[in-house]
Amino acid sequence: MTRRLVVVGGDAGGMTAAAQARRRASSDELEVVAFERGRYTSYSACGIPYFVGGVVDEIDALIARSPEEHRADGIDVRLHTEVIGMDLAAGTVTARGRGAGGETVERFDDLVIATGATPVRPDLPGIDAPGVHGVQHLGDGIDLRADVETTGDGPVVVVGAGYVGLELAEALHDRGRPVTIVESGSQPMDSLDPDMGALVADAIRGLGIELITGTRIEAFEAGAGGRVRAVVAGDRAIACDLVVLGLGVEPDVTLARDAGLRIGPSGGVATDASMSASAPHVWAAGDCVECHHRVSNRPVAIALGTHANKQGRVVGINVTGGDARFGGVVGTAVTKICAHEVARTGLNEKEARAAGFDIATATIESTTRASYYPGAAPITVKVVADRGSGRLLGAQIVGREGAAKRIDVLATAIWNEMTVDEIQQLDLGYAPPFSPVWDPVLVAVRKAATEVR
Ligand SMILES: Cc1cc2nc3c(=O)[nH]c(=O)nc-3n(C[C@H](O)[C@H](O)[C@H](O)COP(=O)(O)OP(=O)(O)OC[C@H]3O[C@@H](n4cnc5c(N)ncnc54)[C@H](O)[C@@H]3O)c2cc1C
After folding, report:
1. Longest distance between any two alpha carbons in the chain, whole Å
2. Atom of ligand 1 nearest to the CA of 136
């Protein structure tokens, strides 16, 4: 008999699972049905800031695989259809379509929950005024870009200085808009240590972007036509004609929780390494799940496309009889604001101490290329190591072009539990256009090696 795989959520986690399962099992063996409440599948939310900024012209460029392409591969994609309930004992979900379709009850043999995350949207006066934008799905990107293009050159406020806030601040700055970023924490990019966050703050201000830290938004004031005209923060009303919210996200676990699945301490759906949730034949992938942090050994919810794709692949393999594992995360992330690149991996100082480590740190300044080679730019690398064992626990990088992706060397080392002594021996590539003869990451771990002794 043909088994039936039902997928809830049509983006990275869900459609990677669906596509992988489809590749591994014939239509006679497995029917694959994917429900997506929006109108796109397999899209890159990561590209939205670049669409808003005009670096990418067409929204279609951000669609890796359209519903039609998935259907041509044998996946029954149901757009504009929201799953509103799951009965795990009965093996059914209830889906509500748009228009005449109404509600249907759909049988499943295996179920994949890939509902993503919900953006934080505080219940503040005026937050629903026209001109206040959240940014999560492609439709949000289209709306924001249209608003940017029709509101002239007035000032904008970005609320939140995490990576989404910074990338959107860049987009709006590049479009010539005066930008103010308001952040409740004491620095931008709160996953960095304060000394590295201060470098990012300097970079932002150096671009002519106003950065207000330690200040909470209290309200959004609307003008005569109802459109936002100011953001009230602390003792200021910051005039603007457009606001973008970048306040982070929380795992969307409403359906999973209501169905009785276990939700972990970080707030995501709890799974094992096979991405199996706490009921037989129920799997989960992407921003809605929590994962194992390989350094802190604690569960974390880190909403990144890179994890969603890997987890979806694991689900697609396992649901078709394979034996794949998701190995966890080390908290690697990169971003940029204009020419300034920011990267982090592993644990920062605070996280490392909270995880029980006695730490040593080392920070160095270098250049991205040989100092005499044109384009050599400043780079600061900070590493956090375990004092007793010398194991590398974390790293942060702030610099210009060529800086951020150096984090991958350190992420690989952390993944493999290497010590700073071992890392300084690594045979990394060198030629003047790419790095100084001692790559900055090697200089940083060499310094750390003297600190841990
Ligand atoms: C502006 C921005 C920039 C980003 N940049 C990066 C980056 O540079 N690098 C990176 O790694 N990550 C980045 N991310 C994060 C990345 O986009 C997400 O981690 C990734 O999309 C998660 O995939 P997902 O499938 O888990 O969830 P989502 O992409 O949120 O997809 C979930 C889907 O499920 C649908 N859905 C939810 N509930 C239901 C339901 N009940 N019924 C039917 N459908 C439902 C939703 O409509 C949605 O399409 C960025 C995100 C944003 C918003």
Report:
1. 71
2. 53
Q: Report how far ligand 1's centroid is from the alpha carbon of 288 (Å).
A: 9
CB 325 within 8 A of CB 152: no
List, in sequence order, every residue forming a beta bridge with 442; answer none if it has no partner: none
**CA gap 368, 435 in Å, rounded:** 5
pLDDT per residue as tens digits for the range 100-116: 668 999 999 999 999 99
Best mutation site among 36, 43, 84, 314 for ligand 1, i.e. most ligand atoms within 8 A of its Cβ? Answer: 36
Q: How confident is the model at residue 297 (pLDDT cuts 50, 70, 90)?
A: very high
pTM of the model as a whole = 0.97
Each residue's pLDDT tens digit, 356-380: 999 999 999 999 999 999 999 999 9
Residues having CB closer than 6 A to ligand 1 are 8-14, 35-38, 45-46, 48-49, 82-83, 114-117, 135-136, 164, 252, 255, 286-287, 303-306, 308
Please write the tens of the pLDDT for every residue from 59-106: 999 999 999 999 999 999 999 999 999 999 999 999 999 876 689 999
Helix (H, G, I), strand (E, B) or coil at 397: strand
- Return the H-helix or E-strand segment holding 194: helix 194-206
CA nearest ligand 1 atom 41, residue? 83
